[in-house]
Amino acid sequence: MLEIDKLSVSYGTVHALQEVDLEIAGEGVLHGVIGPNGAGKSTLLDAVSGRRRPTAGAIRYRGQDITRRSVAWRRRRGMARSFQRTNIFQDLTVREQLSLVAWRLGDDRISDVIEVMDLGDYLEERAGRIAYGVQRRVDVALALIGRPQLLLLDEPGAGLSAEETLRLFQHVRDLVGERRIAAVVVEHDVDAVFACCGVVTVLDLGRHLATGVPAEIRADQRVITAYLGSAA
Ligand SMILES: Nc1ncnc2c1ncn2[C@@H]1O[C@H](COP(=O)(O)OP(=O)(O)O)[C@@H](O)[C@H]1O
Ligand SMILES: [Mg+2]
């Protein structure tokens, strides 16, 4: 589905990503990305989704080099991302919010997205007035419009309790399995990642540190030293 080849991104003198290699296998895969603050996780999603031009390296999507393609091009071809900070218009209702994105993408079927993210009870509420946990579900729902094949979620659990984060992750895992899509999820809460992701990648200081199944990552001495510490 996605092949990232020696990807580097710099912000002036800050090397946010340095020669990162990563493969996202494809259908039904929930791939977690963890690492300390500033590791380059959001930058990775920015580069993959087209918001940030890499300084070097290549990104291939379904066998095609997309390194220089626009955000809109990628979105229309099945890549969708959500943001670390809630990205919704506070004054629109949940329905208006979903309809707006659906209209932009020329996809008027929002009913399955409403059902899958369990938003039926909130459609007429202004997005800014619903509970934060529901807002995060709206964020994911917005990314699901247009039936993306590759979902990129940046800390969907930010601001949620551990329990809410786990529930959201279980939701996304089920969705990925049912729709046979792939998802890359950046997350701070390693418990949810280890519980729900089939594959986990660890970034540290802009570099790829390790990729493996949760049990391998938990036991990886470099990962424990750099990130997990006593939390493992
Ligand atoms: N727009 C930006 N301008 C300058 N530096 C940035 C910018 N965005 C991120 N950085 C820097 O790039 C590095 C990686 O950041 P980021 O990708 O946000 O990490 P993470 O999401 O893992 O916390 C950090 O050192 C951060 O300060
Ligand atoms: Mg981030």
List keywords for this structure.
232 residues, alpha/beta, Rossmann fold, 6-stranded mixed sheet, 4-stranded antiparallel sheet, binds adenosine-5'-diphosphate
The number of distinct helices, counting runs of at least 4 residues, comes to 9
**How do the strands of the widest beta sheet line up side by side?**
6-7-8-3-9-10
For the terminal residues, how far apart are their CA atoms? 30 Å
CATH fourth-tier homologous superfamily: P-loop containing nucleotide triphosphate hydrolases
Q: Tell me, what's the shape?
A: globular
How large is the share of residues in beta strands? Answer: 25-35%
CATH C-level class = Alpha Beta
Number of strands: 10
Give the low-confidence spans.
none
Question: Would you identify the CATH architecture?
Answer: 3-Layer(aba) Sandwich
State the oligomer. Answer: single chain
Strand pairing plus helix content: what structural class? Answer: alpha/beta
Estimated radius of gyration: 17 Å
User: Number of folding domains?
Assistant: 1
Give me the CATH fold name: Rossmann fold
Helix share, percent? 25-40%
Order of helices and strands: EEEHEEHEHHHEHEHEEHH
Largest sheet, in brief, is: 6 strands, mixed
